[in-house]
């Protein structure tokens, strides 16, 4: 019996995340379609962004692999490309002819029976008249979606693969009545073994491996042209092994071998398949495509040729907002969801917004997560693990964190990732690198490649909130640091004493208790670790704690704690070898902007009394972790001269 999680993995990303809330702005906005499966459902919508020029780029390369996280339009773009290039036939299997102007080498824009041609009327690609003349409707196509290729064992994989093959054959039902299927040829009998659902359900493993290759041969003979192959969600079978861990090692090996044989026969040196487009997550699909090593990889946000066709750039976001009559929302989008930004290999700086996130914002007014729930839950369970948390905390602090990139995984890598995500077991440091690579490819991080190293950072507040919610939870912190109730109470009491006494001795006592709490079991690796520990315990013990903005993603007050009438404002920084003046910088920030500005930026006026700007009882605490594992606290009362206390962390 299929598990609910397995079933969920097979659904499209956007079916799983389809929001139920509707916008109160306009009827037009409520009708925004965030399901990115079919081009013919989108091409004439008011919030469609024209990406048709991608088709020209795809046809510059014979075999292309596109890798991007959920919600960036991979499936929509594949469906768009397929509808452009596929030979369209009538019920009798006869190709629908389009009027052409041979002298001008272009298609005539007249009334046509072609449904596909009508989908591209008014689109950018039709301006490329000679390209359209050469490629529109010129390829027989095979389209398969591997999102349904999941199972508890290898036998279930075979059952589902037979269904995929049968679906591919039935899309070309006209072949059954073609003249080349004459009785006694053997060709029709073999065709019917795949075309008939009952016969297909009993195919041997050998026949399953040969099915799509046979279909390509038949189409090549029928049209006299090689096939354009479209494979969506190629990574799902291996992804399911990692996130679900339902199979035995032997079944995993058999499944991967099956996929390697099928893709190798189809995509490497096959005279009947001229072109292919494949969508997948890179680390999983490279295992499947080991035999098909002729495919050009386009990794997420790294390929100058393709990045602009997946997701939205700033101009496209503004265009959509203007269509909705909400252009003034752009600054809010920049503040709450600042996209993915990186520098390409050619030095070009880019900023890309997740397509689904933007359309969902227009539809609901919310920035919802866009990962399948099954994947999101596993990720959140894993990032707080003892061996993984410090590296994630470093990334949260915007520190450079280089991990070794795995270009060619094997079954042991798959099993290691499965142990991490399903059993929360981390055996080797390299396993942590694999996991961080998964975070990059699923869109939880944005990255820069330098040869074999991967440098990552948090891309936006949507991701930040997901990771922060996990790392900053009491359960995660207690599990990681093993703090005693006594230590937590001492920290709480030291803040209360600071509010009551307001003396230098009280600040020293606070420093002592922070050292005892944060340095007792593990040495802190970043400012984020200090921030998350303090915020979690202060939020638990005190009613008024604002932890809206953290780390250098946003230059604001990190934490505001209200004890009685005292406002304690904590700014957490991390001092490295290259930045020894963060304390001075933090204090200068306070001096330059003042308490009122900080209060306004942190939205504290909504939490505190109306006389917040006139409150005189306030303490600024600037906490820093130094390179020699010391905590320094710089403090000032009501803008008086600052004082500093240093306490060494215990190893």
Q: How can the largest sheet be summarized?
A: 6 strands, mixed
User: Low-confidence stretches at least 5 residues in length (pLDDT < 50)?
Assistant: 1-27, 549-556, 576-580, 595-615
Structural class: alpha/beta
How helical, in percent, are the residues? 40-55%
Termini Cα gap: 51 Å
Strand-residue fraction? 5-15%
Enumerate how many helices there are, as a single number: 27
Mean pLDDT: 80
How would you describe the overall organization of this protein?
By secondary structure, this protein is an alpha/beta fold. Helices cover 44% and strands 14% of the residues. The strands form 5 sheets. It has a 6-stranded mixed β-sheet with strand order 13-14-15-16-17-18, with helices on both faces. It has a 5-stranded parallel β-sheet with strand order 4-5-6-1-7, with helices on both faces. A 3-stranded antiparallel β-sheet has the order 10-12-11, covered by helices on one side. A hairpin with a 4-residue loop joins β2 (100-101) and β3 (106-107). α24 runs antiparallel to α25. It is elongated, with a radius of gyration of 29 Å. Mean pLDDT is 80; it is low at 1-27, 549-556, 576-580 and 595-615. It holds the Pfam family AAA-ATPase_like. Residues 1-29 are annotated as: Disordered.
């Amino acid at each position: 019996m299929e598990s609910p999680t397995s079933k969920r993995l097979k659904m499209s990303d956007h079916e799983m995340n389809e929001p139920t809330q509707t916008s109160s702005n306009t009827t037009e906005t409520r009708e925004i379609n965030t399901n990115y499966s079919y081009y013919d459902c989108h091409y004439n919508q008011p919030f469609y962004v024209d990406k048709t020029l991608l088709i020209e780029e795809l046809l510059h390369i014979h075999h292309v692999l596109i890798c991007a996280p959920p919600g960036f339009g991979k499936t929509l773009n594949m469906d768009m490309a397929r509808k452009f290039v596929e030979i369209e036939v009538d019920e009798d299997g006869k190709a629908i002819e389009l009027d052409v102007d041979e002298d001008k080498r272009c298609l005539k824009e007249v009334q046509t029976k072609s449904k596909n041609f009508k989908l591209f009327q008014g689109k950018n690609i039709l301006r490329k008249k000679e390209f359209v003349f050469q490629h529109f409707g010129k390829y027989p196509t095979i389209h398969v979606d591997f999102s349904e290729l999941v199972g508890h064992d290898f036998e279930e994989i075979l059952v589902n693969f037979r269904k995929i093959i049968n679906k591919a054959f039935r899309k070309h039902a006209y072949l059954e009545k073609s003249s080349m299927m004459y009785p006694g040829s053997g060709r029709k009998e073999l065709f019917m073994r795949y075309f008939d659902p009952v016969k297909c359900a009993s195919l041997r493993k050998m026949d399953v491996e040969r099915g799509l290759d046979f279909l390509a041969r038949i189409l090549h003979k029928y049209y006299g042209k090689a096939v354009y192959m479209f494979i969506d969600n190629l990574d799902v079978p291996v992804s399911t092994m990692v996130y679900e861990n339902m199979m035995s090692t032997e079944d995993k090996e058999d499944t991967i071998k099956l996929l390697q044989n099928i893709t190798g026969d189809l995509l490497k040196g096959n005279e009947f398949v001229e072109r292919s487009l494949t969508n997948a997550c890179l680390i999983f699909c490279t295992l499947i495509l080991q035999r098909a090593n002729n495919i050009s990889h386009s990794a997420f946000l790294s390929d100058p040729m393709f990045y602009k066709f997946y997701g939205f750039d700033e101009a496209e976001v503004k265009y959509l907002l203007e269509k909705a009559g909400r252009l003034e929302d752009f600054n809010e989008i920049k503040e709450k969801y600042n996209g993915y930004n990186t520098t390409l290999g050619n030095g070009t700086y880019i900023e890309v917004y997740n397509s689904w996130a933007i359309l969902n914002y227009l539809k609901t007014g919310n920035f919802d997560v866009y990962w399948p729930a099954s994947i999101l839950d596993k990720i959140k369970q894993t990032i707080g693990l003892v061996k993984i948390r410090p590296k994630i905390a470093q990334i949260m602090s915007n520190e450079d964190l280089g991990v070794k990139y795995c270009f060619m995984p094997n079954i042991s890598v798959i099993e290691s990732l499965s142990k991490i995500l399903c059993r929360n077991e981390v055996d080797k440091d390299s396993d942590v690198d694999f996991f961080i690579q998964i975070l990059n490819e699923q869109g939880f991080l944005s990255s820069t490649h330098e040869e074999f190293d991967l440098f990552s950072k948090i891309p936006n507040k949507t991701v930040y909130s997901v990771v922060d919610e996990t790392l900053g939870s009491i359960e995660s912190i207690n599990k990681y640091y093993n703090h005693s109730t006594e230590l937590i109470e001492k920290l709480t009491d030291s803040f209360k004493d600071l509010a009551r006494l307001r003396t230098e001795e009280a600040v020293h006592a606070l420093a002592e208790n922070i050292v005892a709490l944060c340095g007792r079991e593990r040495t802190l690796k970043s400012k984020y670790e200090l921030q998350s520990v303090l915020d979690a315990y202060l939020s638990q013990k005190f009613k008024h704690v604002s932890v809206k903005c953290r780390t250098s993603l946003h230059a604001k007050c990190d934490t505001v704690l209200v004890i009685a009438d005292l406002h304690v404002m904590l700014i957490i920084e991390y001092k490295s070898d290259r930045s020894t003046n963060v304390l001075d910088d933090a204090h200068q920030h306070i001096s330059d902007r003042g308490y009122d500005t900080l209060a306004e930026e942190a939205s504290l006026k909504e939490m505190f009394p109306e006389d917040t700007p006139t409150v005189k009882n306030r303490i600024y605490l600037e906490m820093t972790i130094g390179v020699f594992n010391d905590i320094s606290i710089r403090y000032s009362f009501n803008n008086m001269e600052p004082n500093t206390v240093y306490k060494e962390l215990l190893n």
